[in-house]
Fold this protein.
Amino acid sequence: MQTIELFWKPILLSAVLVHVASAIVWMLLPIHKNDFKNPGDKEKDILEFVRRLGLAPGVYWVPYCGHGADRKNPEVIEKMKAGPYASVNILGKPPSMGLSMIMWVLNLLGIAFLVAYIVGSAGMQPGTSYMHAFKVCGLIALLAHGGNALTLSIWMGMPWSHLPGRIIDAVIYASLTAGTFAWLWPKA
């Protein structure tokens, strides 16, 4: 496959660079330090409540308003007016940092492969200028890394305060991916 033959170096190197950058962004920079709130002394009550409910793993939205005709039901309308509103994500097992890291690296490799595949399919030839390769690869990578940032706030209830951090992450990751591809772009 021509994509792998021409782009295996930038695929691997950009995934490594973005992985290192993400570790720096999340562990050393203050961008995401307030993304998740500590419930403080209410944590025990929340945990006991969730255990008592015995909910299966999944994402729950309350008050649940159903679909279509359910939204016209007076009881549903009253629940929606009264609030409060919450999205609750119940995990099936404890989070695994090791598995999450493996999945993250596979995600980064997948994004880099798709960048290579798209530019190869679009007919960008060996010898393309650094800036042209940077712009095209960067835009593709930006869509891949940050394309759902706005959607998460609009439709999934993620706080709007998370949006700037997600976009900063996407710009950093896309820039590293673009720079790597442009730097290692095949010569004519």
Residues 25 and 58 are 28 Å apart (CA to CA).
